Amino acid sequence: MSLVDGLQDMKVKALEELSRADTPETLEQWRIAYLGSKGAVKNAMAQLKDIPREEKGAYGKTANIIKGELTKAFSNAQAKIGSQGKAKVPAQDVTLPGKPPQVGHGHIITQTINELCDIFGRMGFEAVYGPEVEDEQHNFVDLNIPPEHPARDALENFYIDGDTMLRSQTSTVQIRIMENSEPPIRVVAPGRVYRPDTVDATHSFMFYQIEGLYVDEGVTMADLRTCVDQFCKAYFGDEVQTRFRPSFFPFTEPSAEVDVLFHYDDGSTRWIELGGCGMVDPNVLTAVNIDPEKYTGWAFGLGIERMVMRKHNVPDIRMLYESDVRFLKQF
Ligand code: DAH
């Protein structure tokens, strides 16, 4: 058998094996065996140097032709198996039940703010918002809080620079609204406030308040008492009782603290403080160019986390900020 015949035999064997390769894996094995860097075709080419001179020409030519034929046959087989491979992917079973996408929901604090705005909305209050980065004018000066007041201590506040600070109370929004509107004014302003408190189960350096403000002719403390009581009953349930405890705030006179009486499963009861309120001090009305001889008003500022924790039995304020899905999912 001549050397060239040997090449032809190799080709026949290769094509015959190729015709049996019917998966991408067997095809790849075939490619390595024949066309790979250590494959049969390469070997045949490598032998060229040992072949007697008179046969070299014919051998080389045949080897090249065979290489071309096998390469082409391989591409054809690949194209065929490739398309078969795709067809083998299982078709989508459209009768299977679908997987519903997981839909999130508002954070319990957001939900609560919406609920509070709804309740006050039914009483005729419009929800308004003010900036969290404030100046001393709105956070203190116009609220009748004098420079020597302990609440103005630099260590009690987050100052940014000069007189710019993170607001320490939503009462700032009272000033912003009164500056820009005429009575009658009836607004609630929910939002974040910041104080450098040490974090524990009941304190945080950032928390939420909702401010209320009502200014008109003939507004009285009795209206305030009724409004706060009605609000607490709407939010916590008709069974709660509320009380006003005399207190002091520079921006209200008289001032009171709002307590709510809760009944516990073991039969005990406890008064919980929700925030402060009072009749808007005439100095505050004057600061925003509202005539205190003509108009009176009242205001309140209540802690939103307090409400959430009480209503939903949340034992630690930090749970509200940790974004633990196991906690958040419950609401
Ligand atoms: N701003 C007060 C605080 O953060 C709460 C407060 C008390 C708000 C009396 C009021 C008010 O509007 O009238 O402690």
List keywords for this structure.
7-stranded mixed β-sheet, rod-shaped, 331 residues, 2 domains, 11 helices, binds 3,4-dihydroxyphenylalanine, 3-stranded antiparallel β-sheet, BirA Bifunctional Protein, domain 2, alpha+beta
Short description:
By secondary structure, the protein is of the alpha+beta class.
Which radius of gyration do the C-alpha atoms yield? Answer: 41 Å
Q: Spatial order of the strands in the main sheet?
A: 1-5-6-10-9-8-7
- Number of helical runs? 11
> Percent of residues in helical segments?
40-55%
Strand content: 15-25%
Molecules bound to protein:
3,4-dihydroxyphenylalanine
Q: What's the CATH topology label of the largest domain?
A: BirA Bifunctional Protein, domain 2
CATH superfamily (homologous) name of the largest domain: Bira Bifunctional Protein, Domain 2
- N-to-C CA distance: 87 Å
| Major sheet details | 7 strands, mixed
The parts where pLDDT drops under 50 for at least 5 residues are: none
What does this structure look like?
The chain has 331 residues and is of the alpha+beta class. It folds into two domains: 3-81; 108-328, Bira Bifunctional Protein, Domain 2 (BirA Bifunctional Protein, domain 2), CATH 3.30.930. 41% of the residues lie in helices and 22% in strands. It has helices at residues 3-20, 24-35, 40-46, 53-87, 108-122, 136-139, 171-180, 221-236, 282-287, 304-312, 325-328, and strands at 126-127, 133-135, 159-161, 164-166, 185-194, 206-216, 241-249, 252-263, 269-280, 296-303. It has a seven-stranded mixed sheet with strand order 1-5-6-10-9-8-7, sandwiched between helices. A three-stranded antiparallel sheet has the order 2-4-3. β3 and β4 form a beta hairpin. It starts with a helix and ends with a helix. The relative contact order is 0.10. 3,4-dihydroxyphenylalanine binds at residues 169, 171, 211, 249, 252, 255, 275-278, 299-301.
